[in-house]
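Discussion board: Methods & Data

I've been asked by a reviewer to show the raw model output for two of the constructs in my manuscript, not just the figures. I'm not sure how much to include, so I'm pasting the format here to get opinions. Each protein appears as its amino acid sequence followed by a line of discrete structure tokens. Is this the kind of thing reviewers expect to see in a supplement, or should I convert it first? Here is construct A:
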Amino acid sequence: MNYLHYLAIAIAAVLATVALLVLWNRTLRLRVAARTAELSHALESVQKHEKEVLRLNAELEQRITERTAQLTLANRELQVANEQLESFSYSVSHDLRAPLRHIDGFSKLLREHAQDLDPKSLGFLDTIATSAKWMGRLIDDLLALARTTRQEFHPVQIDLDALVGSAREQCLPDARERKVQWKIGRLPAVQGDGTLLRAVFVNLLSNAIKFTSRREVALVEVGALPGDEGEAVIYVKDNGAGFDMRYAKKLFGVFQRMHAQRDFEGTGVGLATVQRIITRHGGRVWADAEPDRGATFYVALRRTAQASTKAA
């Protein structure tokens, strides 16, 4: 009897356990179904967003391709326009030389046969001759500017010590009978075209001499500063007239001048030539100055591999 009682209790416990398992299984299935539905919805959302991203990427790539083609075309047109402009400037400059020579030559002939002319008329002849010479100088500067782009570029290792020394020698005649103190430090070797870079430093040094002409003792300093990695910064500093930095943006423009012609002669082409040459070298040029307290011009150029290693 006791055996049957225990058996009944065991069977009841088993049945209760089975019922609980069935209930738990049903609950678990419902949860799995709900979670599966959530995951399915999330997957659909992800797939939808993925398609949208792919569509946007394709649209962006298409826009980039179109924009690149437009920029390439615009760059080609700009290059052609620049070449045509340079060719035009070069041709015009050459064509202007002949009439200028005629003007200068005939004004000299008139002066030789001007015994009967009054002083005012002689002054007119002097003005014609002076203007013709000035126009000739302007044409020479324009030709030099055009050549900076037309000239072939031959980058080699440049010894700036020797190059700046040579540029200084060329500028010395402009400083004759003047007191000029030169301070030229050790300069690094750079990568560049020697002929073009020599023109840069001739321009900068001749400007330093010109704009210190009213100083009793002119100071001209050339040195090097640390630049970005693989870069050398060379500066040319003077104690001359300086200029107002508010107008620095037009400093390197063609025919742009910071001083009146009556104060300092110049065509306004030299610094434009400097900028064009340095740009061809992949470098930078800028200036810092104060009125009547001098100016400093900075030129950043690529160091040679050997110089970069030594600097490191």
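Construct B, same format:
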Amino acid sequence: MSQLQLNKISKDIINHAEETLVPEKGLPKVVDDYFIQRLKQDEMQHAEIDARLYDGLRNMVKAEVVPLYEQYRHETARFRERRQKRKIWQYVLGTLGVCELLEAVLTHGRSILPPVLIPTAILYSFIGFIIYSAAQYSDDLHLSRARKRLEKSIEGLELKVQTDIDYDQRRQLLDTDILRAEALEILSHYERPRDFWRDYRKAREADPGVPAEVRALNLPAFERFLKFHVTGQYSPVARQNRFDRLFIEAHELFVSRDREHYVLNHLKNPTSTSP
């Protein structure tokens, strides 16, 4: 997972787009295809992956990297087209023709004599090659500078993405640890799973938002868990997410308590052991 870096991903996608001459309208599809293929490869190599990270990076590439690359294409189109159309023979023959013509005029035709023509033709051809190389180098320099600006911009995005990922992972880790502790505290009040699931259903269906509603439920085991729901700390969606995660944590804890019977009992009597 640590190898899933925006900088490397962007370079792979850009290199593929340039090698296959993908039009600008086809760039989003290239991004989608890359992440689908990458997700398949990583699923075969790793037992568990977080698909949300792939989807987040895919959206980031589409929203941030693709516009940068399109801008790079527009800025360098003139140089790339000119470089591609430039032919060495045009420079060699053009320089040779112009120089020989001028020399012939200045020398009143004496320069076209074989003893003079051959060495001067070689010299002028070499000058034409130098002019061609200088023109190519000038365009290459413009392209290289534009590419470095693009890569520097992507590196800036990489730092931002990595900071966001580290923050989200840390927050998710801390929230998970806290909720697991809450689940352990709640389940310590119950000997039988069916009793917990009865009260869980009652609490979830009520979804109390004020202290009076919590007191009306009369569920002492859930009071500390629901305390955060009535302080305005969590939105309705966030409260449902906490209930969902408590649902998962409870199943895992019940399984760890009774690996031999809990799952089978749950499947035999789902209505009595879960909400």
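Answer (T.O., handling editor elsewhere):
This is acceptable in a supplement if you add a one-line summary per construct. For B, something like: Residues 271-275 have pLDDT under 50 and may be disordered.
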